[in-house]
Amino acid sequence: MVEGLLLQIFKEAYDAENERYTQLESRAKFYLTIISFYLGAVAFKFADVLKFLKEYRISAALYVGGGMLLSLSLLLTILATRIRGYEGAFDLRQITDSFKSSMPKEKDFLEDRLTDYVVATDRNRATNNRVADLLSGSSWLLFAAVLLQLIIFVVAFCSSVNKV
Q1: What does the pLDDT read at residue 134?
Q2: For 57-61, 99-103, 148-152, which range has the lowest pLDDT when averaged over its residues?
Q3: Which residues span the domain enclosing 152?
Q4: Number of folded domains in the chain?
Q5: Residue 110 and residue 137: Cα distance in Å, rounded?
Q6: How far from each other are the two terminal CA atoms of the chain, in whole angstroms?
Q7: What is the pLDDT of residue 36?
Q8: Percentage of the chain with pLDDT > 70?
Q9: CB-CB contact of 142 with 31 (8 Å)
Q10: Cα–Cα separations (whole angstroms), residue 56 to 39, 47, 109
Q11: How far apart are alpha carbons 54 and 48 in whole angstroms?
């Protein structure tokens, strides 16, 4: 009875990492959408951006810097979404093949499955942590790019107020 409870607890920990994988994937798609939209808007309105910079005497370096921040954010997001090695709880084929020599005792079988869950959960957690770190870096770069864009607008606003 205790063994069954232990197995359920270990399975829930494994399933929690699977759910975290799904949440991280969803977050990465969201970041990718925002970054792509932002970069696309700048690319399609490039002539207008140049006109804006010239009219308000804003250094193109600020826009280039924003573009670099967005590009780095995109890079980190793409790295986060790449195919990752995710560990299954156990290999059923390997388990059934091991039965051919002799059937394991129930206690030994349960211990092996608990160990399988521990190893898989630890490996998946490490993978998820790497993805989370990449997405965290991406979000900070995206934040910096948006902040730089706001600074550009403030400079343009102050420039237009000074003209009047």
Answers
A1: 98
A2: 99-103
A3: 2-163
A4: 1
A5: 40
A6: 81
A7: 94
A8: 98
A9: yes
A10: 21, 14, 73
A11: 10
Encode the chain in three state secondary structure: CHHHHHHHHHHHHHHHHHHHHHHHHHHHHHHHHHHHHHHHHHHHCHHHHHHHHHHCCCCHHHHHHHHHHHHHHHHHHHHHHCCCCCCCCCCHHHHHHHCCCCCCCHHHHHHHHHHHHHHHHHHHHHHHHHHHHHHHHHHHHHHHHHHHHHHHHHHHHHHHHHHC
- Write down the residue that tokens 């343009």 correspond to: 156
Tokens of 45: 């309105």
Between 102 and 140, the more confident residue is 140
Distance between CA atoms of residues 75 and 22, nearest Å: 20
pLDDT at residue 144, rounded to an integer:
98
| Token pair 């606003």: residue | 157
For residue 4, the number of C-alpha atoms closer than 13 Å in the C-beta half-sphere is: 1
pLDDT of residue 154: 93
Instruction: Name the residue type at position 93.
Output: R
Q: What is the pTM of this model?
A: 0.86
